[in-house]
Here is the input.
Amino acid sequence: MRKFIFVFLFLIISLSYLFEVDELLAKKFTFINDLKHSYINKMLLISSNIEKHLNQLETIEHLRAENTTLKEYQILYTTAQKQLETLKDFFVNVEFPQNNSIIELVKVLSYISYDDFTKVWLDKEPENDKIFGLISDNYAAGIALNRNDKLVGLLNGNKDCSYAVFLGEGKFPGILTSSDTKDEVQIKYIPFWANIKKGDEVITSGMDNIFFEGLKVGRITEIIDLPDMKIAKVKPYANVLQKKFFYTYKTISNVEINEVKKNEKKATSN
Here is the structure.
């Protein structure tokens, strides 16, 4: 009887132990299974985030490229708008003479030297020894001539810029040249008997075929009397510095007019 009870108790304890081990293993495996699912979910989340990040990078690069293109178009638009405004000012202010002449708009390319802002390269083909008059805002601004097969603009105040002018109501003749005073020019070879005074207006005479008669130059600020002539210092009307465009003026003969008409007919027929 005692042996039977002992065997019975042993079986009960053994079965209990086996059930506890099985439950413990089940718990262990459940933890590992949860860990596995958690790892997989984390990896899926990370992969999704990486994909989103790569898509965002691609979108950012695309937007950057579009932004760069838009900035380039904006710069071109702003530049074109400024040029149109400049051209509009020219067409409003410039009066065209009623004679045989050609007036063309030319662009300033650059200064020839950065220590002299009164000498510039112009975007126009020169014509041998022809000297053009330069006009800005309906005022005489200088001359343009051929230098080494390039058109050079010599603006008012440049030592090599000179052209014929009239002074005062009496239209006394003189030659405009450079002056030692900044922002001024001087008129030489004025007859000593010329009745001129401070404040008189100076205009182009057209006697040298560089300009037409009557283009305004400036006003007299000082008169110097010499034994054989007078010299007048003049404040020019035209502000020639930092200009982007000028008009070139030249007189033409009847032969040149006929040649221009022939070229226009050829261009129209083509």
The first strand starts at residue 101 and ends at 113.
